[in-house]
Structures are given as C-alpha cells and as structure tokens.
Amino acid sequence: MQEELNQFDRNDVWELVPCPPSQIIIGTKWVFRNKLDEQGNIVRNKARLVAQGYCQEEGIDYDETFAPVAMKNTLASIWRPVKGVSIKDLGPNLFLFQLQIKQCQEGIYISQSKYTKELLKKFGIEEGRTVSTPMVTNVKIDKDEKDKSVDESKYRGMIGSLLYLTASRPDILHDVCLCARFQSNPKESHMSVVKRIFRYLKCTIQYGLFYPKNENFSLKGYSDSDYAGNIDDRKSTSGSCQFLGDCLVSWFSKKQNCVSLSTAEAEYISAAFCCTQLLWMKQTLADYKCSFENVPIFCDNISAINIAQNLVHHNRTKHIEIRHHFLRDCVSKRKIEISFVPSQDQLADIFIKQLSSETFASIRARLGIMHIE
Asked: Where in this chain does the record put each Reverse transcriptase Ty1/copia-type domain (predicted)?
C-alpha cells in the first residue's frame, strides 16, 4: 500500500484543493491481488487505490489484459531513459503483460505459454486430440448463412483472446484474422475452425519467438498475396513480414480493400503495403543512427516486380490505384529494391493461406517460432 502511495507522490497524480460546496465526495478503497509467474507461483502482492464503485471481473487484471499493443511496441523499440522516470531492473527473466521473456547467451525467447494454458482451460479445450496445423489445407471459409448460428459473445471472446496471442505467435495470425471476419453472425462451421486453432495451440503450448544474438542487422521484407482468396467478395489477402537480421520484428495479414483484376495487381498491392512498413522502420531506425539503402522486398511474382521496376506508365496498369504506385517511385529513388524469391522460399505464405504440415513447419521455423524450454 505504501508503495502505491509513494508512486502517486512521485508522479504528482493529484493536487489537494478545498472541497467545493454542495458537492458529493467520492470515496476510495483498496484492491488487493497476488501477482503470479508463469508457473502460477506468487511473486509479489499488489495493492491498488481505486474509487468506490470500481469493479473488476474476477481473475482479470485490466492493466495486463488491455496492453498487448503497448507491450509489442515496447519490445519492438529501443528503450531510452526519460527524465523523471525511474527504471527498475527486473532481471534476465520477465513475466509481463502475459508475455514470458527469457534471456540467455544465445538470445531472447518470447512466449505466452501460461496465457495459452489459461485459454485452453477457459474454453474447455484441454482434452481431445491435437493437430499439426491451425487450419486444414485448401479449405475456404464463407458466410455459410444456411448453417446453425452459435453463441456470438463466446465466439468473439475466443477471437479476441487469440488476437492477443498473436503478439508472440504469428503462425496463427492468418487463420485468426480469417475467422475474425465472421464475428457478426458466426456459424457452427466457423466455430469448428476456431476450435481447431486451439487444438493446434494445445500441441504447441511451449512455442514462441526466438531472437538470436548476432551482429547481422540488415533490414528486409517478404511480400505475398492470395489472389481472390475470399470467396464471398473475391478480394485478395495481403501478407508480409519484416526482419532485422534473422529476427522477425513485424508481420501482418490483411484483406485488400479493392478487388484485384490480376495476380500481378494483387502481388503489387501487397508489396506496396510491405514497402510502407519498411519505410516506417527505416525512419524509426534512423533516429538511432542506423541507415539502410535499397532495402530488399522479396516477391515471388515476376510481373509485379516488372511493374515496380518499369518507369514507363503502361496503359494496363492505369487501373491500379495511384496510392500503390508510390512503390515504383521508391524503387526509382533506390529506397527499396524489389527482388524475386522462389515460391518455396517465400516466408510470407504463412500469412495468406493454409499450408501443408511440412511447408507450415518449415516456414514456422524460419520465422524463429520454435519450442521454448
């Protein structure tokens, strides 16, 4: 309790003033809970001073539950001391925002195994068989309006929990985002796909991201698309991932806003998304005196590469939105270099479509997602 009060004093949380006349005073109360590590052992006691009337759902710490983006941004940035802010050394092994961070001589491991176990227990998927991939190969999901509806709140809760898990498990990102498109009126067919993702997590609980310790600090990106993959509106899905050396630092899977008229257009738009992310990373790293020129984007479509490298505006590319043609401008200014990569080496495939178990396991390992002891 005293630690909480001292923190208020250091941060100048409040200022004492005379009580305004005829105003109702809101009282305060203390909320106590135990902080646990990944094994469930009590590591410290926590006290919070809150306003009377404040209520918190049992078992949920809102400071931790609603901070995945903050934690991801913290891990992706370089910490700098801020005047007036105290920094506490939490040691080589951290458990913060449901992320387990383990440091060793080889590098850093980041996982959410404890959170994954809690999800399996919460949604009753502790028993039953396991699967080697989060989704069956070549399965296309649609609205399936004739199927029986399921509990919408439970479905949304499962999707939200899985989205939080993608902070350390990019291998499930595409499948979770695909299922998230049907939250308004989920069907039994959609629920079965979500449960399969949980069954995959059951056999990969200890998997997480590994960041090896080395001197390779090159910046690169992989870009791919699943042409007309959505069978409801025939829009394509863009997938991309970015590396600093051998470390995966950014990834996304997103349905494109427009309907592409060709595979080349879908691939070109996906590469443009990747380009914007790389340019943002270049600018951010420039603040730390890290300079990159001709950052490579690896694409497995020759036509898309030719469009990006050809400075002549062909009539057949006029239908592509102007905002995507900035990729060609970046190539001409030598900010970005778009290069060909064979399909078997295209790491972004895992973010756009379902893969065979062998291909899925291979790409997963190359992304640095591995079993963590």
From this structure: 11-72
pLDDT digit string, tens, across residues 51-101: 877 665 444 444 444 444 444 444 444 344 445 555 555 566 676 777 888
Cβ pair 110, 211 in contact under 8 A:
yes
- Residue numbers of the chain with a pLDDT score lower than 50: 57-82
Single-letter residue type at 317: T
The string over 184-211, giving b where at least 16 C-beta atoms fall within 10 Å of a residue's C-beta and e elsewhere, is eebbebbbebbebbbbbbbebbebbbbb
CA dist 158 and 193 (Å) reads 11
| Token representation of residue 294 | 């001709």
Q: pLDDT by residue (tens digit) across 159-175?
A: 999 999 999 999 999 99
Tokens of 25: 């005073």
d(CA 102, CA 347): 25
pTM: 0.74
Q: How many CB atoms lie within 10 A of CB 101?
A: 20
